[in-house]
Design goal:
about 10% strand
């Protein structure tokens, strides 16, 4: 899928709404409210409606022979159809007829299936690449991340312990950012779901893709959390039950910030604010005691590359291969 056509190719997204829900989101469950509104689900599908629909069918179609009212084919407008009269198979044009949540799931699955992670144990590295097809078959590197040595994490554990003095000051932000960071992006870009639903949808897609990718990279690089280095770190929130490096919050924050900058166009003040907000979200995870500063730096590299990759899949243009060494 070279174009995410169901999303109008990224272009029609007027203002990339600041969807967010960074890392703690490993599933995007915290954004169910948005998915329900605009997802195409039928409102009021309660027991009362079920009984009413049963009665309605009995009254309207009572006595009609089975099959006498068949349409003779599928009903509804489809952008294209195959030789057998059914909708054409595996066409990106059909994304427009899918509900929001289903389209996101399908698009993310399609995009993730084109990615590959190669691990070089001797080099302590993991490389994320895109699998090209057709005449250009092969791998195109997106991001390469090298795992820091034990001594680096031991030194950074002291830094994490030192930053704990900022917890009282950052407590409200830290708690608010555990599951969703949407308000922090909307505050900067004045984004509203009702005015730019496609932008919200694209950000949800990007965050979900970033969550899947970062979990694969975490599993490959296998770096313990700060609290496993020192009991004095004593995190102020529950430590997530997966590896630490790269930081998922940082990956999703920088992916969101960079995506907004790419889609909204250059604006020095806004772009700087977006980057600073991503840095604060990442830093708050270190202050909370659940990440190392190195986790945030690696997440920044991965997140920016993923934002460019998503835009590339929508309208081309490529991406900047990055490395964290």
């Amino acid at each position: 899928m070279s174009r995410l056509d169901g999303l109008d190719g990224l272009d029609g997204l007027d203002g990339l709404d600041g969807l967010d829900g960074l890392d703690g989101l490993d599933g995007l469950d915290g954004l169910d409210g948005f998915q329900a509104a605009g997802s195409g689900r039928i409102p009021g599908q309660s027991g009362n409606y079920t009984e009413a629909l049963l009665r309605s069918r009995e009254l309207i179609f009572r006595g009609k022979p089975i099959g006498s009212l068949a349409y003779g084919g599928w009903v509804g407008r489809w952008p294209s159809s195959g030789a057998d009269g059914m909708p054409s198979m595996d066409s990106s044009e059909h994304y427009a007829r899918m509900s929001t949540w289903a389209r996101q799931e399908a698009c993310v699955a399609h995009m993730f299936s084109a990615l590959q992670v190669d691990v070089e144990r001797a080099a302590f590295s993991a490389t994320l690449s895109h699998r090209n097809t057709g005449a250009a078959a092969g791998l195109s590197s997106i991001t390469k991340i090298v795992r820091p040595p034990l001594a680096a994490f031991q030194a950074q554990a002291k830094l994490t312990e030192t930053w704990a003095v900022l917890r009282a000051e950052r407590a409200a932000e830290i708690r608010a950012q555990v599951s969703t960071n949407l308000p922090f992006w909307t505050a900067i870009c004045h984004l509203e779901p009702s005015r730019s639903p496609h932008t919200y949808e694209l950000m949800l897609l990007t965050i979900k893709l970033a969550s899947m990718v970062v979990q694969r990279m975490k599993q490959a690089l296998a770096c313990p959390r700060p609290a496993q280095y020192s009991p004095a770190i004593h995190p102020m929130i529950q430590t997530p039950e997966h590896f630490s490096f790269p930081s998922g919050h940082a990956t999703q924050a920088f992916a969101s910030a960079h995506l907004l900058s790419l889609l909204l166009g250059p604006h020095a003040g806004r772009d700087e604010a977006l980057q600073l907000q991503a840095e604060m979200i990442a830093t708050n995870r270190v202050i909370a005691g659940v990440h190392f500063h190195a986790d945030s730096l690696a997440g920044r590299v991965l997140g920016k590359s993923l934002a460019e990759y998503v835009v590339h899949r929508g309208k081309g243009g490529g991406w900047v291969p990055r490395q964290f060494i």
